[in-house]
Amino acid sequence: MNVPGLGIPLGGFGAGSFMINQAGTFGPWNFGGQSGTSWEMRILPQAAFHVRERIGTGAAAVRTLATDGPTNTGSNGVVRQRSWGSPLPAWNRLRAGDGDYAALYPFGFMNYRPFKTDVSMRFYSPIVAKEDRRTSMPLAYFDVRIANHTADKAQVSVMFTMPNAPAHVAGTRADLSATAPDSVRTGLSSQFRSANGIQAVTLSADDPSNTLDSAKSEWTIAASPAAGQKVSYVTSWNGEGDGADIYDAFSSTGSLPNANLDRSATAGAISVSASLAPGEVTTVPFALAWDFPQVTFANDQTVWMKRYTDFYGAKTTESNDYVAGSYPFHQSFAIARDALAGRQAALDAVNRWWQPIASDPAYPLEQRRAALNELSMLAVNNSFWEGGLVRNTVVPTGFAQAGPGQHLGAGNPDGHLFGVQDTGAGGTSGMGGTTDIQAYNYRAYYTLFPNVFRDQLLADIETVKLHPSHNAQDIYANSASGSPFITWGNGSDATIQGGTDSRPPNPGQTEWGDSPSKFILQWYAFAKLNNDPELLRAAWPAIKDEIAYLRGLVPAGTHLPVDSGLFTNIYNVIPQEGTGLYNSQLYLLSLTIASTTGEQLGVDTAYVDEVKSELAAAKSQFELTFWDPVTQHYRFSTGSTYPAALFIDSFFAQYVAEDLGLPDVVDPLHRYAQLRLHQGLYRRYDSSGQMIGAPALALPVGLGSPDGQLPPEAQWVWPGTDHLAAADFVKAGGRFSDPQLKAFGLELGRSISDQIWARPDNAFAFNPPCGWSDTSTYVYDYPAYSQALAVWGLMNAIKPITVLTS
Fold it and tell me: E strand or H helix at 26, and its extent?
């Protein structure tokens, strides 16, 4: 569902994450693993920042920097998937409108109006392009800035309260159909710790009954006081009460008693106080770190260490199995200590890649906002990044037994598998990451975070060798009974082959005929964008196997694949019987990549020559089959319900070819004619007259269908698809010296970004759907759909992205 008021997620990739929402509270949550197939729609009522302000000799005022959460109701009462809780009732909360919220990932910003001083906060996790260490950290910075613009002295204190919270809470997931074992976290304790000027409260949980996802886990709230600032703390207060005990302790003077208020260890607090002369400004730096080092799947049969643990003692074998006992656990204080000691260096590292993109006027503001904020899905969509396999009793696909070294990636020393779900809010597409969707995001992934994705691509390549069909399989498939990267692929008797087809190729029967080509394009794109011939060489046998699989979809005597009807590609419920434009053009791209790769590597000359011959024949058949010289556009399909429809994604494969410096896969003049002549059919508007994007299919007389029923995807506006279609218009505008094409591309891109990020009534911010109706954004499906990261393709079309890391 669309969810109003979502915000920036905090936490590194694969570390577990939660949002700081627009109410100022902590949630929704996704700490990953078997319980992470969708967000947990909950907050921590005990987690908040509080400010006590006294100006001159006046009375002190205390406010909590958060307000009540939304409670959305429907015909059956409160809609749990669109509602969350509020801060504790004893606290003097803000009212709606008492502050402003802004976001440009990884940064979030809030400022607050009720105070006489100027109070604002910046919060972020240190997501650093092309770097593993800081990008993986379970860490958030909170910088509270207070400026005294009054004529009197100001006594100010800032308190950070935090509960000893579980990673998962049963019954809170947005996807009500998802199931997983309950998480158990007991044996609570708390303590004050300090080192090198860093002062902190650590909240721990140790008990033999704790589930593995919570074993030896902890939180640390920490502060690094500047000159003139004083820290005080409470190691325990009643986190299960109304909050009056900690509020009373703070409200009297702003200083805490440096002791516990009870012995429950259910919550802790830390406060920083300062005295500001008129005109003086101070920043109070806080950090929140957590250590939940293990992630589990398949009813705890598969256990991995998280990536960040490698930087705090965890070791792995040559086959990437965790070395038992190497991680010391209880590292949240060390993480917070190091974070605050290196705070300025971390901020500089983020700004080096972020600032040039965020501030470059060459990129329209709406695209900068969309591109940066969509990156948040890499942290919150059940993000998985492993630091070694602890144990596994599930027999891995392609292996004869479970045990050390018996898993994907075991032959890639110091490799670290990464995965992210297609959606963050559950549903069928929330069960893992599928290549037919993720391929749209290659510009974001391989330009900003090649270090994160390289090992996943090598594992994809490995599946081609291991699987009987020699067709790469989606390997991050999460379910309560499944184990990502351990079990993958579909049963040969499965009615619907999820994401990739695990059966031998069969023209007209094989589903997801786009996936083999998209694996090929991802391998080539990564190697091209990162100058990585080693990966391309490793991919070469798999490329040849995928070409063979694709050619198995081509009937004898012809040169283009035949589609399966339904579930034939990413547009899975749009019927595409016969030969289809989308999969056929991807086939041309795959043949082009195969011939180019063979030539670049200097291998298999006879094979390359034969592929070139097939490519020439396939191109000829493609133009004869799909190009309509009367209407001047490429037909959608030879056998669908609407074969002559105009398709907004007509040139995905051509866009990729041009973007990667490959030869054209379609006739360039035909492409130009279609883009130039048919823009009017792409425009759709809502009832207020705002453009809301281009639908997947269009005809001058409307689509229609014999039975009066249209599959919704045919009429949908697909945000990710439209972003790359916009990129194609921009690229074509430059190539053909046609500013009108570029202008339309920018208009189309703006319409999508504005509907997601500038229309609060849509409630799509940090939750973009797979698609919405071509007449109203209030009809939509699959929220938190990561194909929206395709906006980085549009950014790169406007101006090539440069990532500065030093």
Answer: strand 26-30
Low-confidence ranges of the chain (pLDDT < 50): 480, 706-708
Strands (E), 596-708: 627-628, 633-634, 646-647, 684-685, 691-693, 697-698
- Cα within 13 Å of Cα(763), Cβ side: 17
pLDDT, tens digit (0-9, with 9 covering 90-100), for 138-165: 999 999 999 999 999 999 999 999 999 9
d(CA 168, CA 710): 40
Q: How many whole angstroms separate alpha carbon 659 and alpha carbon 662?
A: 8
**Radius of gyration from C-alpha coordinates of the chain:** 27
324 burial (CB, 10 Å; 0-12 / 13-18 / 19+) is exposed
Q: Which DSSP symbol is given to 422?
A: S
Q: Return d(Cα 19, Cα 373) in angstroms, integer.
A: 12
Quickly count: other Cβ atoms within 10 Å of residue 208's Cβ.
Answer: 7
* End-to-end Cα spacing for the chain: 41
Alpha helices in 237-342 (DSSP H): 244-253, 332-341
Would you state the pLDDT for residue 643?
A: 92
DSSP one-letter code for 379? H
The candidate with the shortest Cα–Cα distance to 446, out of 497, 378, 379, 389, is 378
On the CB side of 83, CA atoms within 13 Å amount to 9
Q: Which burial class, exposed, middle or buried, applies to 395 when counting CB atoms under 10 A from its CB (0-12, 13-18, 19+)? A: middle
Distance CA 158, CA 153 (A): 16
Q: Where are the alpha helices (DSSP H) in 375-434?
A: 377-380
Model confidence pLDDT, tens digit, residues 289-322: 999 999 999 889 999 999 999 999 999 999 999 9
Surface-to-core class of residue 190, CB atoms within 10 Å of its CB (0-12 exposed, 13-18 middle, 19+ buried): buried
- Residue that is written with structure tokens 């993986």 in the block: 136
How far is C-alpha 783 from the geometric centre of its chain's CA atoms? 12
For residues 468 and 447, give the distance between their C-alpha atoms in angstroms, rounded to a whole number. Answer: 33
> Which residues, including other chains, have CB under 8 Å from residue 726's CB and lie 6 or more apart?
745, 746, 748, 749, 752, 794, 797
Buried b (16+ CB within 10 A) or exposed e, 524-554: bbbbbbbebeebbebbbebbbbbbebbbbbb
Indicate the burial class of 147 (C-beta count within 10 angstroms; 0-12, 13-18, 19 or more).
Answer: middle
Q: Contact, 1 vs 39, CB < 8 A?
A: no
Contact criterion met (CB below 8 Å) for 585 and 653: yes
- List of residues 6+ apart from 154 with CB closer than 8 A: 53, 54, 55, 116, 117, 146, 148, 275, 276
Q: How far apart are CA 743 and CA 82, in angstroms?
A: 37
For residues 476 and 485, is the Cβ–Cβ distance under 8 A? yes
DSSP-derived secondary structure for 220-256: EEEE---TT-EEEEES---TTS-SHHHHHHHHHHS--
For the question of whether the overall pTM of this predicted structure is more than 0.85, the answer is yes
DSSP for residue 82: G
